[in-house]
Design goal:
homodimer; globular; 6 helices; 135 residues; three-stranded mixed β-sheet
């Protein structure tokens, strides 16, 4: 039983694995539209675009919480229910550090900033994939 | 920049990190009830219990897909929409191997079997946490 994890990968900057297709949904889109986007792209969260760039994140978890609350999914707008207090990392932070942020903050997605601008998003799947890649 | 991953943790059997509270919802529960369970427990998936034990898994992703489809969440039963083709591991499989199964099968949860019985479930979060634990 040999199980070696790729230490080099763990130390790489997160920018090497982030997704940089941003603002997948708009602030006035309905939660139903966001669910369709999440399903079509098989992703766990989308960035919500505002007039000046991304203004929040909406995740599968958020949608499920709204379902549990009995919210009106066709009339609830993305901007009203998105998370704006984003867990974020710098493009130069290591993949392992971003993974630790996910565990500590109980989130599956971290937005990636360069200076003060959001330039990408990274998922727990991306982090795990990178850590196991060298095996 | 030092980033060391816990190789010993990666080689541990998955049974050391699995959750063994099973059958959180019943087969006739509605999708809305399942969403409430997922939200209350802050988990990404539940095992669906049948008369003889767990018969499937229902995840956040499944709920979001049903929302996208416009399904009737109060009348759709767990057993009708759950995943029965479960990605499973043996209690003795290593944590790293279970992580690889998640990546390859694009799932966030793997059920854990001992002989032919489901005895637990493990999430991507549990795997990542274990890999980063020794750092």
């Amino acid at each position: 039983m040999t199980d070696t994890i790729d230490r080099d990968a763990a130390a790489q900057p997160v920018k090497t694995i982030m997704r940089d297709t941003l603002a997948d949904v708009e602030q006035h889109d309905s939660v139903r539209d966001v669910a369709a986007e999440l399903t079509a792209d098989e992703i766990g969260a989308v960035l919500v675009g505002g007039p000046m760039g991304p203004i929040g994140v909406l995740s599968e978890r958020d949608v499920v919480t709204l379902v549990a609350m009995g919210a009106d999914l066709d009339n609830e707008q993305a901007q009203a229910v998105m998370t704006t207090d984003l867990v974020s990392a710098d493009v130069h932070d290591s993949i392992a550090d971003v993974g630790r942020q996910m565990i500590e903050n109980r989130v599956r997605h971290v937005v990636v900033r360069k200076d003060d601008r959001i330039v990408g998003i990274v998922s727990m799947r991306d982090v795990l994939d990178a850590l196991l890649a060298g095996v």
